[in-house]
Amino acid sequence: MGAKNKSVSSSEKSQGGKDKAKKEKKDTSEKKEVAVFINEDEANKIVKSSKVITIQDLARQTNVKISTANAFLKKAVSEGTVKKVGGFSGHYIYQSASQ
Q1: How far apart are CA 50 and CA 10, in angstroms?
Q2: Measuring CA to CA, which residue among 32, 39, 72 is closest to residue 53?
């Protein structure tokens, strides 16, 4: 009985893909600075000007961490200036209460 022949793709994998070009690593030294504190006036203005907003959208637009944006929105919901209008499992959609 003879040995089983390997397929072309599996033999290339075992060789480590020598013919493939090496991928260049991204330069991670240019990281975006993300703040821990949120400018509440700016955040309120963004929420009011948006039809709806998510935690991720607010964090990106105000240049803060997602946890900071989440804390701001939770506080705003408890104060009644913002309301939850949809979403599930931590991915909620918020809307200004004045709309």
Answers
A1: 51
A2: 72
Please give the structure tokens belonging to residue 70.
Answer: 């989440």
Strand partners, 84: 94
State the Cα angle at 62 between 36 and 72, rounded to 5°.
Answer: 60
* Domain 34-99: which CATH number of 1.10.10.10, 3.40.50.620, 1.20.58.220, 3.40.640.10: 1.10.10.10
If phi > 0 it is left, if psi is from -120 to 50 it is alpha, else beta; for residue 9 that is alpha
For the chain, 99 residues long, give each residue's pLDDT as a single digit of tens. Answer: 667 777 776 666 666 555 555 556 665 566 667 778 888 899 999 999 999 999 999 999 999 999 999 999 999 999 999 999 999 887 999 999 886
The model's pTM: 0.64
CA–CA gap between residue 30 and residue 73 (Å, rounded):
29
